[in-house]
């Protein structure tokens, strides 16, 4: 794990097109901004883990011909 120290207003880059900016720091809470291309999906880790669990459950209960729509796809449709 890479650990960096950043102050409010400072940024870091992931690859060439994802920028993480520290917006504010208050007590034990850090507010971050993420600038990324539209094709980059961003989830909070706890939501990402729930999506994975739901996909595993759906894959285990459907038949071969069943259409499985992941929770992630449902969430993305609701955002539009």
Produce the secondary structure layout:
Elements: E1 11-14, E2 18-26, E3 29-35, H1 45-61, H2 71-79
Antiparallel strand pairs: 1-2, 2-3
Brief rundown of the structure:
With 80 residues, this protein is α+β, with helices and mostly antiparallel strands. The protein contains two helices and three strands; from the N terminus they run βββαα. The chain has two domains: 7-40, no CATH class; 45-79, no CATH class.
Rg over CA atoms, rounded to whole Å, is 17 Å
Number of domains: 2
Mean pLDDT equals 84
What kind of sheet is the major sheet? 3 strands, antiparallel
- The string of secondary-structure elements, in order, is EEEHH
Question: What is the structural class?
Answer: alpha+beta
Largest beta sheet: strand ordering = 1-2-3
Work out the helix count.
Answer: 2
The span between the termini is: 34 Å
Note down, in words, how this protein is organized:
- This protein has 80 residues and is α+β, with helices and mostly antiparallel strands.
- It has 2 domains: 7-40, no CATH class; 45-79, no CATH class.
- Helix content is 32%, strand content 25%.
- It has helices at residues 45-61, 71-79; strands spanning 11-14, 18-26, 29-35.
- The chain has a 3-stranded antiparallel beta sheet with strand order 1-2-3, with no helix packed on it.
- A hairpin with a 3-residue loop joins strand 1 and strand 2.
- It is elongated, with a radius of gyration of 17 Å.
- 0% of the residues are buried.
Features:
single chain, elongated, 2 domains, 3 strands
